[in-house]
Backbone:
């Protein structure tokens, strides 16, 4: 197959619309404004080529293939689409007031700023037509901009729609410009609408204005964020540059328009694609080079040296060389080498390199076939991190160390940005001509909800810190453990000794927590993944309760092949441990404790509980992510509690291709979960609270219109008389606002349990922020909750506290986690399936936390 | 010479004559070729319009100061941003510094910041000057600014009859000259200010009409006695009448921060490639261990081999330098070895310099003579299959 044909085939298979959800259902806004690429950058702007996602764990943007891929314009529209879904008005119990009242008030500073403008501020939307008509957008813009009538006015223009902050004298203004040929072009500027500042169109224009302003501060737009490449942070040992920058946006919060800014870093790799390929070729040798190279590179985002654009690598064409010719737009043929020399004065030094193929985005309203661009590896820089790099602990640690900012550092950066905007004459000029003023930083009052007690088997413990109660419960017995009698340890000759000493330690700590571990059968295996799988196949019989594998290296194939076999082909709980981990000096006890806890959970044990005042409550967690191998497959993980104490869990993981299929499989799952609940409790739960994670921008409508009804119908169908009451809450770990407390004239992270349900929230939603994690050296990110459906009618206070309680129940960590436990379990399950198993795990394991 | 005018002139709807490439591009390419040939350091474009020519010239490695002057401030502001460095310029910096400044002002006003230039271009400018300004123009540009070289282009009116119904090519043109008119003016000016001048042009006339000459006529003025301006610049009184509307500086290897970035990267890459070729690996590869990175791949390969290719001299230099070595699980590459590679040698003259620049970014051996790294790292495991 030719490169071109292949990329087409791939293009279809990987077409974003196949996986992007909510896109087809999306009704366009009344006026779609896409000035994102207007006058400021018409030839070498970014033309929406970026596939950018944010690695929220480290607060870094990394170009990442698996993530959203759409034009900025579209993406903005999707955000605004979410805002048009007004769910709160349907929830009678919070229509008047959605704020809670319990807890201790705490003063908080935010990263939100007032944006001041005159009371009667309006935006005037004009339509511009040209006679004779001009096809070139650039020419249309140039003609309008060079006309003296408009020269001193604040304006935003995309070639057809013109926005002005000052009204023109006449409703219809006729201007004419003469060209060099003496051709007179008539421009008719007609007033279409007068928009109040609250209009969504205005908010889009405000965002455009701020994008222009940040460009004037010598910042560069990549994706939706702005970066400053002249002050890079270098990590030479990993060949990375981090560009500091900001994610900014202007939007309506509870009652007013606010500007928000958060610090962001862009990861760039200090190597060209050619250098990367050369190094890779040295590593892999030739036999599997092309294959490995494609696997590593396809989907990555590159930055070209000779313009400011980013491209995604959709294919590699090994048959095309820089010495080959291509057809220019004017029809003439030229070699790539000559083209780059003529156009950019760049000499391509390696004439043997293959070509990267990028599928160019179609222009707006253009239904023609997508164009391909051939890029020269030597002239492309890699951005973002590969999956492999993100799995490199050392690398990620180095990145985190460089990018982690304490609240005070973050506050300083924000202050400097605001200061720069106000000092830079060009930036200030832009703001002022629009009639805008930068206002003060928003302060608000949050509440710290009471801390939770941890219930152990015969002890109630009030942890010193909710962040980590491992010390507090060291001497306590766990709630319920099953005895481990028949099990296997697989290890290599080299690791046998360490396995033995670990086993002793494990049995000791397990005993003290009330978990009986008998002596296992130890099997020695050769050091290769196939040998491990063969041994598993050979020795696992129906009596085996658990298989432990001491892995000689963290090569992914070991883990993946073992997990795949034991999660679906032959369902038995398994525990993989890196031999290296067991060699850590002085850590044996704590490692053994952690592993013992995981093992007991995998066997169906329960570790601890918190007090749940609601007596018949089922909590559900749902997460969705893309499969690592086939990016058009979505992995949907669902987890539901099956006892009133919320200590036992039922799970399913289903692979799907479209968003509507996701909703359908939720129904299948809910029916199964309710059956389980009935089996254990001889009744249905009175209340169900669903925490839904993995929701992308613009998907809210699909959730409200499709998923919620599916969940409701599965609940209704499960019972002939009264059915359970349902709440559905969208959980987002990534959100713009940050909160700081002011203490001793410096800012710090707010305490665990801080709830914010005013000012930084949205008027049209029943939403709140909850801080349920600690960040020792960095800035804590709040988790954002949006209750989109609620017939439980719980008071906001109770909903917030229930959510907080659930953050204490994740058994893989003896401390609070950033999202409710069901969400974290669902995430862990989807991650295992998406990364390692790639198919549905056996239902025989559904009642165990086998995915920990 | 703006986008607007340019597009209309070059892609006329009704005219029979079409230039390929478009005429404005031919004019810019003409200037660019001249720059390639003469390698001026300081270049100014008077009447730069939407800065298209400046954008073409900024990629030239020899230019260190690039200035545009125009009376239309809006146009300068509108397209000015596009002269800022690309993001890639921060990852692969230029060798030499480059500053680009756009001034709002008139070419018949004196501004001392334009003194001492190597090249000043006036592309399709003079025909926009009224008679008073045209009279003052030589005195300012030739007499006061007095650069080493001046390029002036203007329409050749003898060509106009080939266009349908055209008297002047632009409504703002105050005049359009025949070749004789232009050359008379040019020779007079050259003589008065001690320049020599050559005439040429772009836009070949169509077959059968060769006698009308080029569509655009060009005069290249060179100052007699070469570059004598530098000395007198400082003596001139500072005179700032232009308003700077846009200024940008490019990252370059002359700046310590970027020099370090590039050097550290090149060193890490070279060390990494040497390290990988020292790794214990499968049998088939063993023969290729060692110091010949370009050999890896082989010629009978299904995929082309790529990566650096060295000349015989370079190869010999590399072979004769101290070899990398292992001690335990550590891998050492002598700095002398690194200096033997052309890409590093180009950046760094000696070991001392290399050591002082990379010392706080890359671990060195205790005596500082070699880069030291772990022989095996995380990624190696990922590639065993």
Residues:
């Amino acid at each position: 197959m030719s490169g071109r044909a292949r990329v087409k085939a791939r293009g279809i298979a990987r077409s974003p619309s196949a996986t992007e959800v909510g896109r087809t259902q999306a009704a366009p806004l009344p006026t779609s404004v896409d000035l994102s690429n207007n006058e400021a950058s018409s030839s070498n702007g970014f033309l929406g080529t970026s596939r950018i996602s944010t690695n929220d764990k480290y607060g870094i943007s990394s170009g990442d293939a698996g993530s959203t891929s759409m034009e900025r314009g579209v993406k903005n529209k999707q955000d605004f689409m979410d805002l048009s879904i007004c769910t709160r008005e349907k929830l009678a119990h919070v229509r008047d007031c959605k704020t809670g009242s319990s807890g201790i008030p705490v003063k908080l500073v935010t990263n939100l700023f007032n944006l001041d403008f005159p009371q009667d501020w309006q935006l005037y939307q004009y339509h511009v037509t040209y006679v004779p008509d001009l096809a070139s957008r650039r020419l249309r813009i140039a003609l309008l901009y060079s006309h003296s009538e408009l020269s001193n006015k604040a304006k935003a223009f995309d070639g057809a729609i013109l926005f002005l902050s000052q009204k023109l004298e006449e409703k219809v203004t006729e201007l004419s410009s003469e060209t060099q040929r003496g051709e007179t072009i008539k421009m008719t500027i007609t007033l279409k609408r007068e928009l109040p500042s609250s209009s969504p169109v205005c908010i889009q224009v405000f965002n455009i204005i701020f994008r222009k302003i940040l460009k004037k501060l010598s910042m560069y737009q990549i994706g939706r964020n702005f970066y400053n490449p002249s002050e890079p942070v270098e990590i030479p040992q990993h060949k990375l540059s981090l560009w500091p920058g900001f994610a900014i946006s202007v939007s309506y919060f509870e009652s007013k328009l606010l500007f928000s800014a958060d610090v962001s870093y862009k990861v760039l790799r200090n190597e060209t694609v050619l250098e990367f390929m050369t190094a890779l070729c040295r590593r892999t040798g030739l036999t599997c080079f092309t294959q490995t190279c494609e696997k590593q590179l396809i989907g990555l985002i590159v930055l070209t040296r000779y313009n400011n654009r980013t491209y995604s690598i959709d294919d590699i064409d090994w048959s095309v060389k820089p010495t080959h010719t291509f057809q220019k737009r004017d029809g003439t043929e030229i070699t790539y080498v000559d083209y780059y020399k003529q156009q950019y004065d760049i000499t391509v030094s390696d004439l043997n390199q293959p070509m990267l193929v990028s599928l160019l985005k179609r222009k707006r309203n253009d239904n023609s076939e997508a164009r391909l661009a051939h890029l020269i590896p030597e002239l492309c820089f890699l951005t973002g991190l590969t999956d492999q790099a993100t799995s490199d602990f050392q690398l990620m640690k180095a990145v985190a160390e460089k990018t982690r900012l304490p609240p005070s550092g973050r506050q300083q950066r924000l202050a400097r940005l605001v200061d720069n905007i106000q000092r830079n004459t060009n930036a200030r000029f832009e703001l002022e001509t629009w009639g805008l003023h930068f206002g003060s930083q928003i302060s608000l009052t949050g509440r710290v909800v009471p801390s939770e007690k941890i219930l152990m088997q015969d002890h109630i413990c009030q942890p010193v810190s909710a962040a980590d109660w491992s010390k507090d419960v060291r001497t306590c017995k766990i709630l319920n453990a099953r005895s481990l009698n028949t099990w296997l340890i697989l290890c290599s000759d080299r690791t046998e000794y360490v396995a033995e000493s670990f086993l002793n330690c494990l049995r000791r700590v397990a005993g003290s927590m009330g978990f009986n571990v008998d002596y296992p059968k130890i099997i020695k295996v050769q050091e290769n993944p196939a040998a491990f799988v063969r041994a598993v196949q050979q020795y696992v019989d129906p009596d085996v309760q658990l298989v432990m594998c001491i892995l000689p290296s963290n090569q992914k194939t070991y883990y993946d092949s073992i997990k795949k076999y034991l999660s679906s082909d032959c369902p038995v709980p398994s525990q993989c441990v890196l031999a290296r981990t067991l060699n850590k000096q002085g850590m044996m006890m704590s490692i053994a404790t952690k592993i013992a806890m995981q093992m007991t959970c995998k066997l169906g044990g329960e570790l601890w509980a918190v007090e749940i005042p609601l007596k018949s409550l089922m909590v559900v967690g749902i997460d969705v992510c893309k499969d690592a191998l086939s990016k058009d497959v979505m992995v949907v993980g669902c987890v539901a509690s099956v006892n009133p104490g919320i200590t036992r869990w039922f799970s399913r993981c289903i692979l799907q291709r479209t968003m509507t299929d996701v909703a359908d499989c939720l129904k299948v799952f809910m029916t199964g979960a309710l059956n389980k609940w009935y089996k254990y409790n001889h009744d249905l739960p009175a209340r169900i609270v669903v925490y839904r994670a993995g929701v992308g921008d613009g998907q809210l409508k699909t959730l409200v219109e499709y998923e919620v009804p599916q969940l409701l119908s599965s609940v209704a169908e499960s019972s002939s008389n009264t059915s359970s009451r349902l709440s559905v809450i969208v959980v987002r770990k990534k959100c713009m606002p940050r909160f700081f407390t002011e203490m001793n004239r410096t800012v710090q992270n707010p305490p665990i349990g801080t709830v914010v349900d005013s000012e930084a929230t949205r008027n049209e939603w029943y939403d709140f922020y909850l801080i349920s994690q600690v960040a020792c050296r960095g800035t804590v990110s709040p988790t954002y909750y949006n209750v989109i459906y609620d017939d439980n009618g719980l008071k906001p206070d109770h909903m917030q506290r229930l959510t907080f309680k659930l953050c204490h129940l994740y058994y893989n960590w003896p401390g609070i986690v950033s999202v409710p436990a069901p969400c974290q379990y669902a995430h862990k399950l989807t991650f295992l399936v998406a990364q390692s198993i790639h198919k549905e795990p056996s239902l025989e394991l559904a009642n165990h936390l086998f995915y920990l | 010479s703006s986008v607007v005018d340019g597009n209309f002139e070059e892609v006329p709807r009704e005219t029979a004559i079409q230039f390929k490439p478009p005429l404005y591009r031919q004019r810019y390419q003409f200037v660019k070729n001249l720059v390639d040939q003469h390698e001026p350091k300081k270049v100014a474009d008077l009447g730069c319009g939407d800065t298209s020519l400046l954008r073409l010239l900024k990629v030239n490695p020899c230019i260190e100061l690039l200035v545009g002057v125009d009376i239309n401030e809006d146009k300068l502001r509108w397209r000015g941003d596009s002269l800022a460095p690309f993001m890639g310029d921060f990852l692969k910096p230029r060798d030499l510094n480059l500053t680009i400044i756009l001034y709002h002002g008139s070419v018949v006003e004196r501004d001392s910041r334009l003194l001492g230039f190597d090249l000043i271009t006036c592309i399709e400018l003079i025909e926009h000057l009224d008679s008073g300004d045209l009279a003052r123009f030589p005195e300012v540009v030739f007499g006061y600014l007095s650069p080493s070289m001046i390029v002036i282009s203007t329409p050749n009116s003898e060509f106009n009859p080939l266009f349908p119904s055209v008297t002047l090519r632009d409504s703002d043109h105050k005049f359009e000259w025949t070749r004789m008119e232009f050359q008379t003016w040019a020779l007079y000016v050259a003589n008065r200010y001690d320049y020599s001048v050559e005439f040429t042009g772009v836009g070949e006339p169509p077959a059968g009409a060769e006698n009308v000459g080029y569509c655009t006529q060009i005069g290249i003025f060179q100052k007699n006695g070469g570059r004598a301006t530098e000395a007198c610049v400082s003596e001139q009184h500072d005179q700032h009448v232009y308003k700077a509307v846009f200024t940008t500086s490019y990252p370059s290897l002359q700046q310590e921060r970027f020099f370090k970035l590039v050097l550290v990267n090149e060193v890490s890459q070279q060390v990494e490639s040497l390290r990988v070729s020292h790794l214990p690996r499968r049998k088939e590869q063993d023969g290729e261990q060692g110091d010949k990175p370009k050999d890896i791949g082989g010629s009978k390969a299904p995929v082309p081999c790529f990566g650096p290719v060295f000349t015989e001299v370079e190869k010999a230099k590399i072979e004769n330098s101290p070899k990398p070595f292992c001690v335990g699980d550590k891998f050492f590459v002598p700095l002398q070895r690194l200096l033997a590679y052309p890409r590093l040698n180009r950046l760094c003259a000696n070991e001392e310099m290399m050591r002082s620049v990379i010392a706080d970014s890359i671990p060195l051996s205790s005596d500082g003579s070699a880069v030291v790294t772990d022989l095996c790292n995380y990624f190696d495991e990922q590639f065993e299959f």
About this structure: The domain at 21-248 of chain B is CATH 3.40.50.150 (Rossmann fold). The two ends of chain B are 61 Å apart (CA to CA).
